[in-house]
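Example protein as discussed:

>
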Amino acid sequence: MNCELYKSEMYAWRPGSDAVSFQPLFDHLARCPECAQFFERLTTSDQRIQRTFQEIPEDRSLESRILAGLAHQRAQTKTHRPRWKSWILLPLAAAVILVVTLGVMPRLEEARVGKEVAALLNQPPGLQIDSTNRQQILDWCASVFSGPSSLPPELNKVEFRGATAVEVADHKAVLLKMKNEQRASLLIVDAHLTRESGFKSMHEKSGSAALWSDGRRTYVLLYQGSAQEMHAYMVQMGIEA
């Protein structure tokens, strides 16, 4: 299924939909930054209109007129899709206005993380702190986050050789270069940006990455090598223990 057909699925998504039926859509959003941005704009626009409805509760007819107009506009501006689906787009476009993004945002943020991780793999930034003192580096990271300097137990074996502050998906983050593997870096984002409970692999043209979260922060191992090489390094460092 190509991007244009996935966009038709975006119009069909609404709260209470069968999650299994729409899983291919969200898997595609995680892989396709362009579609993820389109879906984010779509839901953001719907939120603004929903807030307008809430601010003018006394005019119930206004909501129905806006919904009808928006549905007509989307039906006119969308690209050609298979005829067997075209008849359902008009009512579904109106239903998208009622989307509550609490369940959608983690998927969109995960897609944004994937895009920005690819950029960091392709062109890593220079170091702001150059040191092999692990505690000094962790204390510096804590000052960036204004939080504790501790790391999850699976990172106890990892040593660092420097760090720099970055921003990922509009959240504060730090990128740490590994001391014992020149190709490896650790990205720590001060937010929970993945819906996965365990490790999730991401494969980019310029390298590989593994993403996980401790429920408070998001950790991404960036590796300028193959997925097999990255996995071997993770096992060596006890990251998957």
Residues 33-55 form the longest helix (23 residues).
